């Protein structure tokens, strides 16, 4: 019984931390003097509905507030689209399917909850790459509805718990030190 209360308390605290972190970062990124000068970037879902190609373009190549200076199209405030691309050896163009905008938004929220980098080890996959890594035949990676990730310095079970509070489906791989997150469609 004690473990149940501990688990509930932990999830409640993580949910509150997520909410406070997101509110804090939103407030930090658009202060009163900046709000008039900068329009907020389009959300992943807005950009995805406008784009006919699987890449989501960023309004500018301006680095995110935490100092990351990598250029490229942004999936969200902290992730480049390239981080989600298929990493096969040239069997596809990197985009055999479009990434699910809802998944991109929830992974960004996960990143905000921990206020530290989240590393995407696998996003969308072509069938050949999926077979190479031992993915199941109808893997959600094939349709852009899944990603494998970890947060350096944070136990995978904590990452999984917060991901679940955000509405992500999670399969934990504690021995490999990563979590598989997905959106069910």
Q: Can you describe what's shown?
A:
With 185 residues, this protein is an alpha+beta fold. It has a single domain, classed as Muramoyl-pentapeptide Carboxypeptidase, domain 2 (2-Layer Sandwich), CATH 3.30.1380. 37% of the residues lie in helices and 10% in strands. The chain has helices at 2-29, 32-35, 44-50, 101-114, 127-132, 156-165; strands at 119-122, 146-150, 169-173, 178-182. A four-stranded antiparallel beta sheet has the order 1-2-4-3, covered by helices on one side. A hairpin with a 4-residue loop joins strand 3 and strand 4. Helix 1 packs across helix 4 (101-114). Pfam families: Peptidase_M15_3 (PF08291). Residues 44-55 have a biased composition (Polar residues). Residues 78-181 form the Peptidase M15A C-terminal domain. Keywords: Membrane, Transmembrane, Transmembrane helix. InterPro entries: Peptidase_M15A_C (IPR013230), Zn_M74/Hedgehog-like (IPR009045).
